[in-house]
Specification:
- By secondary structure, this protein is of the alpha/beta class.
- Helices cover about 35% and strands about 20% of the residues.
- It contains seven helices and seven strands.
- A seven-stranded mixed β-sheet has the order 3-2-1-4-5-6-7, covered by helices on one side.
- Helix 1 packs parallel to helix 7 and helix 6 packs across helix 7.
Length: about 190
């Protein structure tokens, strides 16, 4: 059995889709949900599904390597709206085994501060004719790891940032879990 730890900072709609997708999977399970916010709704959602949770403090995440003990037995870390930069010790401990989803077509609209509505507002302001998602491996810089998968959606002049967000979220929900499954079953 392959074990996934999902790291999320907020509501966890992608975490929910992943948990549902792997609920009865014969080879993969979500075995831990980690958040940097004690009040993040994703924690209650995970608990409702019987999945253990962990809340990280900034000090514990960045100034110690204690988290590695909690991640023993984890095969893949999935960032699903986790807003902290992953520290070098964690990247080194999980080489090519930390995956993020970004709500744009990288390398455009990535980097520090480019998440959620900020991305969709920038895409809209630039008058882009398409947007999409990028699933990529995590390295020690924001949104610069090797691209695993991209999916695109067409944008119209009528699409405001909220409409772009809805189109992109639909792609996230359709593709994130299947790409993770493919990664774990092909290795």
């Amino acid at each position: 059995m392959k074990n996934i730890a999902i790291f999320a900072s907020g509501t966890g709609s992608n975490a929910r889709k992943m948990i549902e997708y792997f609920a009865n999977h014969p080879q993969i399970r979500v075995s831990l949900v980690v958040s940097n916010k004690a009040t993040a709704p994703v924690l209650a959602m995970a608990a409702d599904h019987g999945i253990p949770t962990l809340v990280l403090s900034r000090t514990r995440f960045y100034e110690t390597e204690e988290l590695l003990t909690d991640l023993a037995g984890i095969d893949l870390i999935v960032l699903a709206g986790f807003l902290w930069l992953v520290p070098p010790y964690l990247v080194a401990a999980f080489p090519q085994r930390i995956v993020n989803i970004h709500p744009a077509l990288l390398p455009k609209y990535g980097g520090k501060g480019m998440y959620g509505a900020h991305v969709h507002t920038a895409v809209h302001a630039a008058g882009e004719k398409e947007s999409g998602i990028t699933i990529h491996f995590v390295d020690t810089a924001y949104d610069e790891g090797q691209i695993i998968f991209q999916a695109r959606c067409v944008l119209t002049p009528e699409d405001d940032p909220a409409a772009i967000a809805r189109k992109v979220l639909a792609l996230e929900h359709a593709h994130f879990a299947p790409v993770i499954a493919q990664l774990l079953t092909n290795n």
